[in-house]
Design goal:
- The chain is α/β, with parallel strands linked by helices.
- The protein folds into two domains: 91 residues, lambda repressor-like DNA-binding domains (434 Repressor (Amino-terminal Domain)), CATH 1.10.260.40; 196 residues, Endonuclease, Chain A.
- Helix content is 48%, strand content 12%.
- The protein is built from 14 helices and seven strands.
- Helix 4 packs antiparallel against helix 5 and helix 11 runs antiparallel to helix 14.
- The chain is elongated and about 70 Å long.
């Protein structure tokens, strides 16, 4: 399954039909995840939408809207459907019931209009906020959850689009809030970063040094693993572009992979895609320096940064 999420308005007609709308009044990544999972269990049970509609006492159209994420499923409806589909795993019940509750929960990012107005970015942040395991590979930039505010400001300012200061301030505030997910005791976080992203000169030696020091600081947390992929590991570095892999339960098995760009986000949930990216990430980790050697590498990289802008 591939979602290409763009910043466009979605006309659902759900309000006129009396359905429960997801938070924000439009399909969200949470409502789509819930709907897609319910559909998978229905198909596995060899039942059609009419069976589901009869069990809930609703129209077939409503089941269709729930399965596509246009309408948010109620917790009670989720239980009835999982019973109908003869799902026995109680963890599945707990997971999908929580997802149903969260589908109508306003995310913290909705208070930032520059984020909530970009549906593709809001969906990416929603995945991140729900994740219990986050694994990422980046060959070009410092991964988002490891970026300092000044590093982000430099990236944004160097792009072709000129942003007003207040917009950049909001981007930094959102990024700082996003970083809370990997605070001690939060999601398990593992990042593989190709060497050039760490060592290539930056416009400011101070920003460069502070960024690498910040990575060293974050890497001290028990739930964080940082590995450096050496420049010489060319073959491994080109196995895939930047991606983030998410898991949402107690097990690390991937459940979504996101390719995040400046204009769109692609979210993949196909099982073969999950398995492929899991293999790629393990290959990258094997080719990368172990975590302790990676931190030594970053410390040495800091020593090579010019001490002043003049020297740079």
């Amino acid at each position: 399954m591939l979602w290409r999420v763009r910043s466009v308005a979605v006309q659902t007609g759900a309000e006129a039909k009396g359905d429960t709308l997801p938070a924000g009044g439009k399909p969200t990544v949470r409502s789509r995840r819930l709907g897609a999972t319910l559909r998978q269990y229905r198909l596995a049970a060899r039942l059609d939408q009419e069976h589901a509609a009869e069990a809930l006492g609703c129209s077939k159209a409503k089941i269709s809207r729930v399965e596509t994420g246009i309408s948010a499923a109620r917790v009670g409806d989720v239980r009835v459907l999982l019973d109908l589909y003869e799902v026995e795993d109680r963890n599945v019940y707990m997971k999908l019931e929580q997802l149903a509750r969260d589908s109508n929960k306003r995310g913290w990012w909705l208070k930032y209009p520059q984020v909530s107005n970009k549906e593709w970015y809001a969906d990416f942040v929603s995945l991140e906020a729900d994740a219990s395991y986050i694994r990422t590979y980046h060959p070009v930039f410092i991964p988002g959850l490891l970026q300092t505010g000044d590093y982000l400001r430099t990236l944004v300012s160097s792009g072709p689009t000129v942003h007003p200061p207040e917009v950049i301030d909001e981007m930094v505030a959102v990024r700082q809030t996003r970083r809370q997910i990997i605070k001690e005791g939060g999601a398990q976080y593992a990042a593989v970063i190709w060497e050039p992203a760490l060592t290539a000169p930056m416009p400011s030696s101070k920003i460069h040094r502070d960024q690498l020091l910040h990575i060293l600081d974050v890497a001290q947390r028990q739930n964080v693993s940082i590995q450096v992929l050496p420049f010489s590991a060319w073959q491994a570095a080109h196995l895939a572009p930047y991606f983030v892999m998410f898991s949402f339960g107690p097990e690390p098995a991937p459940e979504a992979v996101a390719y995040d760009t400046t204009t769109t986000t692609m979210i993949l949930e196909d099982l073969e895609e999950m398995a492929y990216h899991a293999r790629v990430f393990e290959y990258l980790r094997s080719a990368a320096l172990p975590p302790d050697q990676s931190l030594d590498f970053i410390r040495k990289a800091i020593e090579k940064i010019p001490a002043s802008e003049k020297e740079a």
